[in-house]
């Protein structure tokens, strides 16, 4: 980008910036490959077992593995950046290049600025992957695993949907299975209750299909309950009946697939929370996951910040690439232990879930900033 075309607010990319980023790229890609292979090892073993024991098609096992890669990459990007920064700083310090830059009048913070910007940029990239790619990939993995590999219905366990009714009361819908290809509910039972919680109507149907924002029940048998004597009155039987169930196929698919918010985007989690279908314990779990989904990708920036001073210190202690790898694993291990602790705190105390989700980042940012300040004074 030339000077005339560059916006005034955008800093110029200097030779120093390109040099520092080039030093980071190689170790980062090495770390990304290494950590991804470590996480993928168990999945590769699972592919072999699925093909040899379950007689699953090889193409299906490989496709299921590939659909799992996005979630692995999202998890390994921060650790790869941590390792990449450590190794890059180790090499530059070990060969006295940082000392030479400082002797030339370049401040330490200016030297490492490109690495910090790269950490922030990769945080945003990780957030986009987590929100736009991982949920879709996980859904495809679930479908392939159950329908092709395990030869079962993708969502074979019964699921319940609870929805309010206009004018008071509520409606509970039970179904035995969900077909993701046709977005149909199978073996549907719908029960309506009045304000006092008494059942007023029950409907049985073979299936429910979704079209034009409405569910249509096939072969519906309707039974109404008398409010006076509690006897059942046969209302009617109709081949087609339109009803409101309170959730669309996408919402039902997410709940039927295992109710795991870790495999959802923040938008999907927020949508499920807004339905009011969750129990108090489920609500705490979903709310904490919603907060963590925003905080976790910024571990990329935090790891970059804390890796710089540790990289310099390890070189002075006679460090090497193997020491850098071990140090990266140790820092990441401690970080995720702290994250697990605060995740439990956030689920137990939903009022401070947002703070609990960001606490690991805040703690490690404080440690990294303090060590970075001391390293800049040397």
Structure description:
This protein has two domains: 15-150 and 290-377, no CATH class; 159-256, lipopolysaccharide transport protein A fold (Sandwich). α2 runs antiparallel to α4 (108-149), α2 (58-94) packs across α9 (321-348) and α6 (266-274) packs antiparallel against α7. It has 378 residues and is of the alpha+beta class. The chain contains ten helices and six strands, in the order ααααββββββαααααα. A hairpin with a 5-residue loop joins β1 (159-164) and β2. It is elongated and about 90 Å long. Helix content is 60%, strand content 17%. The chain has a six-stranded antiparallel sheet with strand order 1-2-3-4-5-6.
Topology:
Elements: H1 15-52, H2 58-94, H3 97-103, H4 108-149, E1 159-164, E2 170-179, E3 184-193, E4 199-211, E5 214-225, E6 232-243, H5 249-256, H6 266-274, H7 280-295, H8 299-316, H9 321-348, H10 353-377
Antiparallel strand pairs: 1-2, 2-3, 3-4, 4-5, 5-6
Helix pairs in contact: 1-2, 1-4, 2-4, 2-8, 2-9, 4-8, 6-7, 7-9, 7-10, 8-9, 8-10, 9-10
């Amino acid at each position: 980008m030339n000077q005339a075309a560059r916006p005034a607010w955008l800093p110029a990319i200097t030779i120093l910036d390109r040099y520092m980023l080039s030093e980071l790229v190689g170790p980062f890609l090495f770390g990304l490959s290494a950590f991804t292979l470590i996480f993928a090892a168990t999945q590769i073993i699972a592919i072999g077992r699925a093909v040899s024991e379950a007689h699953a098609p090889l193409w299906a096992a490989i496709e299921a593995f590939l659909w799992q890669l996005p979630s692995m990459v999202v998890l390994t990007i921060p650790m790869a950046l941590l390792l990449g920064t450590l190794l890059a700083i180790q090499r530059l310090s070990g060969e006295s290049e940082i000392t030479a830059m400082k002797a030339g009048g370049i401040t330490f913070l200016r030297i490492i600025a490109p690495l910090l910007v790269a950490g922030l940029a990769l945080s945003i990239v990780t957030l986009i992957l987590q929100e736009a790619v991982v949920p879709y990939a996980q859904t495809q993995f679930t479908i392939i695993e159950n329908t092709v590999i395990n030869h079962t219905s993708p969502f074979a366990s019964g699921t319940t949907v609870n929805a309010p009714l206009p004018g008071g009361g509520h409606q509970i819908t039970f179904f035995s299975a969900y077909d993701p290809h046709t977005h149909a509910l199978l073996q549907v039972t719908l029960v309506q209750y009045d304000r006092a919680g008494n059942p007023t109507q029950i409907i049985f149907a073979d299936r429910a299909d979704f079209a034009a924002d409405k569910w249509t029940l096939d072969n519906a048998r309707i039974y109404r309950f008398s409010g006076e004597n509690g006897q059942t009155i046969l209302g009617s039987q109709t081949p087609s009946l339109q009803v409101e169930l309170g959730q669309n196929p996408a919402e039902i698919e997410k709940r039927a697939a295992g109710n795991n918010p870790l495999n959802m985007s923040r938008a999907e989690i927020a949508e499920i929370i807004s339905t009011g279908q969750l129990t108090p314990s489920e609500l705490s779990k979903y709310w904490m996951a919603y907060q963590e989904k925003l905080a976790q990708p910024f571990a990329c920036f935090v790891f970059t910040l804390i890796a710089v001073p540790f990289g310099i210190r390890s070189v002075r202690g006679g460090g090497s690439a193997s020491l850098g790898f071990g140090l990266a694993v140790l820092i990441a291990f401690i970080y995720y232990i702290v994250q697990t602790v605060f995740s439990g705190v956030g689920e137990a105390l939903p009022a401070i879930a947002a703070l609990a989700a960001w606490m690991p980042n805040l703690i490690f940012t404080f440690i990294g900033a303090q060590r970075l300040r001391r390293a800049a004074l040397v």
